[in-house]
User: Fold this.
Amino acid sequence: MSYGDRMSSTRTARSEGRRAEILRSALEVIAERGYRGASLAAVAERVGLTQQGLLHHFPTKEALLVAVLADRDRWDAVPSTQWRLDLLGSLVEYNAMRPGIVQTFAALLGESVTEGHPARAFFTGRYGEVRASMAEVLRAEYGERLPNGLTPERAAPLLVAVMDGLQYQWLLDPESVDMPGAFRDFLALLGEPGGGAGSRES
Assistant:
């Protein structure tokens, strides 16, 4: 490797390290202050940069928050072959312990439905992957038909809608909405595997 290549590699590693540090700091600020309070200035101060220095890595607040969400998905990632319905319940319980991150997700999700929003592509791609993953979770649990007769592909969007819809209700009124409990109730509504029309064929 030439001297120039080594210098370039060092600069790249330094830049990636700084980017990871910014994302960690942004996550901390979001958890402490929520979505609206997570200003670029606050994140820059936490990581020891000027706001202009932060903008070199993330040109807008939206770009920074989308990157935090993408990292959140990587941290939470479980291979689709290892997901089970009971693990989904654990994920809902975990989310109930980090309202700042859930608030960020919900706020950006709501805004992303508008044309040209920087988070739209992220959420569009994410939901496609999540629906496919949830269909496989349901198939592993119930086979090709749930007890109510739905296929895993038809039930998957409903499962995702319940998870995200409960988050909105819980964020608005956490004292009245038991998010993990309500999700367990929904899973009970799906029925027991092998207990009805969706029983797995031998």
